[in-house]
């Protein structure tokens, strides 16, 4: 999250110009989910405060698949039990869904699939009613990118080693700002990124920016977007300006969609630089989140080439600042959060809000650990060490609860 970060804007514009191959193979169609599976999908709140409960083994063995392209004529399908591997061609996607406009309900579901060693895994453009759940993403550049869409649910997925493969920014070579989940101009009701696992511990992921990025995205007053129950472990030499969760990042946007988002009960350990960032917009409910970023991680971030020149003291828990500048920033409620974060200059920085640029920022019952020598019990162990199960034990979900 860079001040004056026009390169990110240029990157997003460049992405919209990317083309995709017309290659498409047969799509697995299912009539209905099991009642248990559907109930879990529609009720992500059930596991609040107790971690991630995912959805069970694939009903059939994984089947190798070539990249798929779906358009409006491919509505009402389920893609299940597929293995997408080595999708590395520039501009190629393991799955690309292309609708005709943001409110076109396609009713497409992607579940129980494995995406492995892909430059791009899933891309969705101009479509509504897309469910991506119960999948695994391993060693992908950009795992999920959704733009100009609505009614999008990205729940109960697992991500490992994201940002090790460079996504190419056409004309500019490799671009480092890649995310596990990226929403761009996603608005309307029913949007969710919840109960996912991102584990980059031990990865060499120089291109990772944010784990969950809402670029000018959110919900509406009657149906807030939800970012809930995600378990995020960074611990990687990724972008020194990145975050665990970022909302309101909308430099250059002309219409504001960054509003009405609930960020609840997420856990962030050793994020790229900031645990949770608010960079503009309004009506955010940030509650029950826990963040841990120790000094040694911040010191590692300070060695990043960008930081050495522009950001020598990275590291922060929850940060609120109207980075987008031209957009309104107000009505941000922080309740019951806990953060321990040490900057690279050995200064505690669990929370900071620029109330000059963002108004109506309220704090209730938060625990900010301002003593750098006392984390209040927060540590690397607030997330399980084996957050992402071994690939040798092929499982997708319901075999455990974290």
Question: How would you briefly describe this protein structure?
Answer:
By secondary structure, this protein is mainly β.
Topology diagram in text:
Blueprint: H1 6-16, H2 35-42, E1 63-64, E2 68-71, E3 77-80, E4 82-87, E5 95-98, E6 105-111, E7 114-125, E8 128-133, E9 136-147, E10 150-155, E11 158-160, E12 167-169, E13 173-175, E14 181-184, E15 192-194, E16 197-199, E17 212-215, E18 225-228, E19 231-233, E20 243-247, E21 259-264, E22 267-269, E23 274-278, E24 281-287, E25 290-293, H3 295-302, H4 305-310, E26 316-320, E27 329-335, E28 338-341, E29 351-353, E30 359-364, E31 367-368
Parallel strand pairs: 1-4, 2-5, 3-6, 4-7, 5-7, 6-8, 7-9, 8-10, 9-11, 9-14, 10-15, 11-16, 14-17, 15-18, 16-19, 17-20, 18-21, 19-22, 20-23, 21-24, 22-25, 23-26, 24-27, 25-28, 26-29, 27-30, 28-31
Antiparallel strand pairs: 12-13
Total count of domains = 1
- What is the end-to-end distance? 30 Å
- Main sheet? 19 strands, parallel
What is the annotated CATH architecture? 3 Solenoid
The CATH class turns out to be: Mainly Beta
Beta content comes to: 35-45%
User: What sort of overall outline do the alpha carbons produce when their principal axes are compared?
Assistant: globular
Mean pLDDT across every amino acid position:
78
Number of helices: 4
């Amino acid at each position: 999250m860079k001040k004056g970060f026009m390169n990110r804007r240029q990157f997003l514009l460049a992405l919209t110009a990317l083309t995709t191959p017309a290659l498409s193979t047969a799509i697995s169609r299912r009539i209905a989910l099991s009642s248990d599976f559907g109930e879990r999908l529609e009720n992500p709140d059930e596991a609040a405060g107790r971690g991630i409960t995912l959805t069970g083994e694939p009903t059939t063995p994984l089947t190798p698949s070539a990249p798929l392209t779906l358009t409006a004529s491919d509505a009402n399908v389920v893609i299940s039990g597929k293995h997408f591997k080595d999708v590395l061609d520039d501009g190629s996607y393991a799955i690309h869904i292309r609708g005709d406009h943001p409110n076109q309900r396609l009713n497409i579901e992607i579940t129980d699939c494995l995406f492995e060693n892909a430059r791009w895994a899933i891309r969705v453009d101009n479509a509504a009613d897309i469910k991506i759940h119960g999948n695994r993403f391993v060693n992908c550049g950009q795992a999920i990118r959704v733009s100009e869409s609505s009614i999008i649910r990205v729940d109960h997925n697992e991500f490992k080693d994201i940002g090790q493969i460079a996504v190419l920014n056409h004309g500019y070579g490799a671009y480092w700002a890649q995310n596990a989940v990226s929403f761009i101009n996603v608005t309307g009701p029913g949007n969710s990124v919840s109960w996912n696992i991102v584990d980059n511990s031990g990865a060499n992921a120089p291109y990772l920016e944010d784990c969950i990025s809402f670029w000018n995205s959110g919900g509406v007053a009657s149906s807030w977007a939800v970012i809930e129950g995600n378990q995020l472990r960074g611990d990687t030499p990724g972008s020194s300006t990145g975050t665990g969760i970022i909302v309101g990042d909308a430099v250059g946007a002309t219409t504001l969609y960054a509003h009405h988002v609930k960020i609840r009960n997420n856990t962030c350990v050793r994020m790229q630089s900031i645990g949770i960032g608010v960079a503009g917009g309004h009506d955010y409910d940030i509650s029950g989140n826990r963040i841990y970023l120790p000094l040694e991680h911040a010191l590692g971030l300070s060695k990043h080439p960008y930081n050495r020149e522009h950001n020598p003291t990275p590291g922060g828990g929850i940060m609120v600042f109207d980075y987008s500048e031209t957009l309104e920033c107000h009505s941000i409620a922080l309740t019951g959060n806990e953060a321990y974060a040490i900057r690279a200059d050995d200064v505690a920085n669990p929370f900071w809000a620029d109330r000059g640029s963002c108004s109506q920022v309220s704090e209730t019952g938060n625990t900010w650990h301002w003593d750098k020598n006392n984390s209040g019990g927060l540590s690397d162990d607030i997330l399980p060490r084996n957050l992402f199960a071994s690939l040798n034990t092929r499982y997708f979900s319901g075999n455990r609860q974290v």
